[in-house]
Amino acid sequence: MVSSHMFGDKEYIGKYKLIGDKLIFLDKVYDNSFIPDTVFIWNDKIILKHRENGEPEIGFASYFDIKKNTIKNKSQ
Hints:
By secondary structure, the protein is mainly β. About 0% of the residues lie in helices and about 35% in strands. Strand 3 (about 15-20) and strand 4 form a beta hairpin. It is globular.
């Protein structure tokens, strides 16, 4: 995963497990609690949290855009 910000890019590498649309990080990918250990792939986004009604939260700083996906989902 690559996080882009005004001072450059930061690449995060680690082990994960993909179950359907759920991406579970087995290694801590971020040095604080900003990115949870479980996120969800929805369309072209990695969703960090959902609203109470189950809809994906796509407000400020609550998702990442997927620009290149090289993960092969074995369940499909």
